[in-house]
């Protein structure tokens, strides 16, 4: 039995029952693939179900506001995925008469859809012979064939895509693609893979050469930058606060937050007092403030570590654009902000 048939045979008895595997509806498949980018199945599944329940068709998603989509996405991170999801839904409804492109080449033109996602939708929804290459596939192929080319290098991306294309089962591309990804997720795991029960063990180069832990190879990550955030939590006598939308481009674009001051280090109360609050979104003659957290809350993103403090500022009255504190939960926010709102006793 060759490589692809061993994988498909393993998949037939080990696959997880997931809702997007029970359909060839391209909307459902596209939605699941966007959610599962940078996200594990156990975390993504509740979001998938929530989106399907609230937006059962692409027309429903296209009619939604971006704020509503971001709110439903809240907690998944990588919010550009949600913005692209909404943009693409409107494009398909408004420009493609609600019909998904039915082939890899055209799917690749959709915003937020790259090589892997286009291949997945093309094969799962339309049974096109398009090989998927995600993190799981990189790991399986690298270990099985003993490939030491970095998977995140230009050469590696091309090499693994070419290899995956030669291996795919042309008679049953959808099942094969699901099989190799599931195999990487459950059997050939990043840490502590189940080599003792692996059906590919005998011919696996990494196992034979004791290189399982060394493969796949990755180039060094981008340098992580450190930022210091000071969120200003204003509260007035009418139980209002200030909340603003992040219009600038970035990971939190179009999400909401308390007014923010960035500093070049973590500030203590004395240093904060010396700052010019007139430059921080609100001009007041006198304020009563307190530091909510003496120790920075560290929020780690892929390329940034945010050291954050929340300053609670009591004032008599806020400007007309202030909002009731009770309405904070209606707004889409970064997890850092939503966690604070949940635990802080306003």
TrEMBL record:
Record note on cofactor: Binds 1 [4Fe-4S] cluster.
Keyword annotations: 4Fe-4S, DNA damage, DNA repair, Glycosidase, Hydrolase, Iron, Iron-sulfur, Metal-binding
Domain HhH-GPD: 35-186
Superkingdom of origin: Bacteria
EC number: 3.2.2.31
Coiled-coil residue spans: none
Pfam families: HHH, HhH-GPD, NUDIX_4
Gene3D superfamilies: Helix-hairpin-Helix base-excision DNA repair enzymes (C-terminal), Hypothetical protein, domain 2, Nucleoside Triphosphate Pyrophosphohydrolase
Substrates-to-products reaction catalysed: Hydrolyzes free adenine bases from 7,8-dihydro-8-oxoguanine:adenine mismatched double-stranded DNA, leaving an apurinic site
Cofactor requirement: [4Fe-4S] cluster
SUPFAM superfamilies: DNA-glycosylase, Nudix
Catalytic class of the enzyme: hydrolase
PANTHER family assigned: ADENINE DNA GLYCOSYLASE
Protein role: Adenine glycosylase active on G-A mispairs. MutY also corrects error-prone DNA synthesis past GO lesions which are due to the oxidatively damaged form of guanine: 7,8-dihydro-8-oxoguanine (8-oxo-dGTP).
Family: Belongs to the Nth/MutY family.
Protein name (database record): Adenine DNA glycosylase
Organism: Winogradskyella bathintestinalis
This protein's encoding gene: mutY
């Amino acid at each position: 039995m060759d490589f692809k048939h061993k994988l498909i045979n393993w998949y037939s008895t080990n696959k997880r029952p997931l809702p997007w595997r029970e359909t060839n509806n391209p909307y459902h498949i596209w939605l699941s693939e966007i959610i599962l980018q940078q996200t594990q199945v156990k975390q993504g599944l509740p979001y998938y179900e929530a989106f399907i329940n609230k937006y059962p068709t692409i027309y429903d998603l296209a009619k939604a506001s971006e704020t509503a989509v971001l709110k439903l996405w809240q907690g998944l991170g990588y919010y550009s995925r949600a913005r692209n999801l909404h943009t693409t839904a409107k494009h398909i409804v408004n420009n493609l008469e609600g019909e998904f492109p039915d082939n890899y080449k055209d799917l690749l033109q959709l915003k937020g859809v790259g090589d892997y996602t286009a291949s997945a939708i093309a094969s799962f929804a339309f049974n096109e012979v398009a090989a998927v290459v995600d993190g799981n596939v990189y790991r399986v192929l690298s270990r099985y064939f003993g490939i030491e080319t970095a998977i995140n290098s230009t050469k590696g991306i091309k090499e693994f895509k070419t290899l995956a294309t030669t291996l795919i089962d042309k008679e049953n591309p959808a099942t094969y693609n699901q099989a190799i990804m599931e195999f990487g997720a459950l059997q050939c795991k990043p840490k502590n893979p189940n080599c003792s029960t692996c059906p590919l063990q005998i011919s696996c180069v990494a196992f034979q050469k004791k290189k399982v832990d060394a493969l796949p190879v990755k180039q060094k990550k981008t340098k992580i930058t450190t930022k210091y955030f000071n969120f200003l939590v204003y509260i007035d006598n009418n139980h209002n606060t200030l909340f603003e939308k992040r219009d600038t481009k970035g990971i939190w674009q179009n999400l909401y937050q308390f007014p923010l001051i960035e500093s070049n280090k973590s500030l203590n109360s004395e240093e904060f007092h010396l700052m010019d609050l007139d430059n921080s979104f609100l001009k007041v003659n006198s304020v009563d403030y307190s530091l909510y957290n003496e120790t920075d809350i560290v929020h780690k993103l892929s390329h940034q570590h945010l050291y954050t403090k929340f300053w609670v500022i009591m004032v008599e009255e806020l400007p007309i654009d202030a909002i009731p504190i009770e309405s904070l939960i209606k707004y889409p926010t970064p997890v850092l902000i939503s966690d604070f709102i949940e635990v802080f006793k306003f």
